[in-house]
Amino acid sequence: MSVGAIIFTLLIVGSVFFAITIYNRLVTLKNRHENAFSQIEVQLKRRYDLIPNLVETAKGYMAHERETLEAVIAARNEAATLLKGAAATLSGDAMQQLAGAEGVLQGALSKLNVVMEAYPELKANENMMQLSEELTTTENRVAFARQSFNDAVTNYNAYRQSFPVNMLCNSFGHRQDASLLEFADSAEIQKAPQISF
Question: 20-25: long-range contacts at Cβ-Cβ below 8 A with a sequence spacing of 24 or more?
Fold first, then answer.
């Protein structure tokens, strides 16, 4: 075998090894950001499960605030529905719709908080205080999970866009960047909701 043939064989083997390494790294990064979204999904579902309990507890004290309570439940239901769609596709449009629904839910919860301020006996209710604490803890978990997801998406996109990976990623089935989960009022939403009793 000539030196030229050996060099050619080494180049082919090296190229194949390099392509396999790129493919495996893309798969790993994609799986990480999909897993990170699953963590957001877990925390949002936990929040969505807490909200009906919060509303039920408040109903007895706030009978004439029915519109506010219904708005919270409607916003929760819409966000829960859009979460399922976002989890199924992880597309940019689904992420934007979920972010919008989360903004509406955050607004409804803020309005509920303002209304609850007028009910001192509700603020003193032990069940309400516990639900409020759980909701605040969940909001912190959602923020952490969202940050972790966005970090994973950024790592995936940065690797996918780098040279020479960008020349191979389309042929490996990684045709587009992953979408971040961003909220329009991101500075405001970083704070846990203030539900004081």
Answer: 22/164, 22/165, 22/168, 22/169, 22/172, 23/168, 23/172, 25/159, 25/165
**Closest to 128 measured CA to CA, from 60, 44, 42:** 60
- Per the rule left: phi > 0, alpha: psi between -120 and 50, beta: everything else, 144 is alpha
pLDDT of 192 above 70: no
Residue 196 lies in a domain: no
Domain of residue 120, CATH code:
1.20.1440.20
Work out how many domains the chain is built from and give that number. Answer: 1
Range of the domain at 157: 3-189
Q: CB under 8 Å to 48, separation ≥6 — which residues?
A: 76, 79, 80, 83
pTM of the model: 0.75
Cβ(70)–Cβ(56) below 8 Å: no
Q: Within a domain: residue 45? A: yes
Strand, coil or helix: 162: coil
Q: What is the pLDDT of residue 191?
A: 52
> What's the confidence (pLDDT) of residue 197?
43
